Amino acid sequence: MGFFRFIWRNAIRNKRRTGLTVLSIGFSLFLLTALLTFMDVLMHPPMLDESALRVIVTRTTSIADAMPLSYRDKIRRVPNIEHVSALQWFNGVYKDPDFFFANFGVEANEIFEIYTEQKISPEQKAAFIATRTGTVPSEALAKRFGWKVGDTITLQGTIFPVDLELKIVGTFADPLNQETMYFRYDYMDEALGGLGEVGAFAVKAKDAASVPMAGQAIDALFRNSPAETKTETEKAFVLGFISMLGNVQTIIGSVAGVVVFTMLLVAVSTMAMTVRERLREVAILKTIGYTQSIILALVMGEALLISTVGTVLGLLLAESLKYADMNRITQGFITQFVVLPSTYASVVGAGLVIGLVAGFLPARQAVNLTITGAMRRLD
């Protein structure tokens, strides 16, 4: 019997135990892949080249604290600032409260000058500017709900005590495929009784070189005021928002480490049980002249075969998440599940380590047993 055929026959000798071990490794590495992918998306949010020209202005105390709307005109007068728009998070829901999508009160004449990568036809943009109750969802969001231009919808308030009756006057294309909706800030403010407050301002600078100086100038403008500001790049703002979840890297890293270590213990236990059941065979192999290195290779080969099949299963399960509705599952934090090559390498490496360690420890025990020692254990 050939070497690899011998390993295969041993691996499938106890089909139930082998199958359960493969499933355990597969689901563990699937979880590891998902955790590493989520951490990568959260810590490295997708950004386009246009984002280098944008900064977000918020209160120094918290992004939940509002600023006077009058700050908008003062920011416009800062040198090298081209466009400014109020950006008010509404957190409204449409019919299904379990489905989250981003919705903002903005200034219709400015928002698409700031987010230039989001494309809208001139006619629909003009309609958005002219219609007080107008709204423009992204094409992905409109497709999800089956909205068409001319439809009227109700956006139910959650953090604000108002419901907004909105008329869809157009849609815009978003290269990041995010499900987002814009409506007019002045309509929302009017519905709230004219508070004249806003949570953030989206600002576009003239060029990338002007961004640091513009940010410093904006913050200096409102220093020592009742509502001091913090101006940061778009990426820094998104990462700051994510940091509200806690130390994401430590949390996910700890869980991933526990998953791998637990699976390693399971695999070692399985292979140790397998070797104990085959002490008679080990003694026979040594009797007929099999060397210690060959016996070591047979046991480790079986462990590597099982871990390899489990690794492939885990990666296939992870690939299936590409077809899942991640926007709904993650409540808008992740729109698409894309596994990076570095994540694949880490997961394959983890599977290889599990196989090597799980096979080496029992195999070392087997090769160190003498023939008489193995027979004595059987007795």
Highlighted features:
nine-stranded mixed sheet; 11 strands; 379 residues; elongated; alpha+beta; two-stranded antiparallel ribbon; 14% strand; 15 helices
Describe the structure.
With 379 residues, the chain is an alpha+beta fold. It has 2 domains: 3-45 and 246-378, no CATH class; 66-226, no CATH class. It has helices at residues 3-11, 15-43, 71-76, 111-114, 122-130, 139-145, 185-191, 211-221, 234-243, 248-277, 279-287, 292-320, 326-329, 341-368, 371-378; strands spanning 54-59, 67-68, 81-89, 102-106, 134-137, 152-156, 163-168, 180-184, 197-198, 201-205, 229-233. The strands form 2 sheets. It has a 9-stranded mixed β-sheet with strand order 6-7-5-8-4-3-10-1-11. The protein is elongated and about 90 Å long. It starts with a helix and ends with a helix. The mean pLDDT is 83.
Summarize the structure.
By secondary structure, the chain is an alpha+beta fold. It has helices at 3-11, 15-43, 71-76, 111-114, 122-130, 139-145, 185-191, 211-221, 234-243, 248-277, 279-287, 292-320, 326-329, 341-368, 371-378, and strands at residues 54-59, 67-68, 81-89, 102-106, 134-137, 152-156, 163-168, 180-184, 197-198, 201-205, 229-233. The radius of gyration is 30 Å and the shape is elongated.
Q: Strand order within the widest sheet?
A: 6-7-5-8-4-3-10-1-11
Q: Please report the distance between the alpha carbons of the first and last residues.
A: 29 Å
Overall shape: elongated
Number of domains: 2
Number of helices: 15
Beta fraction of the residues? 5-15%
Any low-confidence stretches, pLDDT <50, length ≥5?
none
- Taking all residues together, what is the mean pLDDT? 83
As a whole number of angstroms, the C-alpha radius of gyration is: 30 Å
* Main sheet properties: 9 strands, mixed
Q: How many β-strand stretches?
A: 11
Computed structural class: alpha+beta
Q: What is the string of helix and strand elements? A: HHEEHEEHHEHEEEHEEHEHHHHHHH
Summarize the amount of helix as a percent range: 40-55%
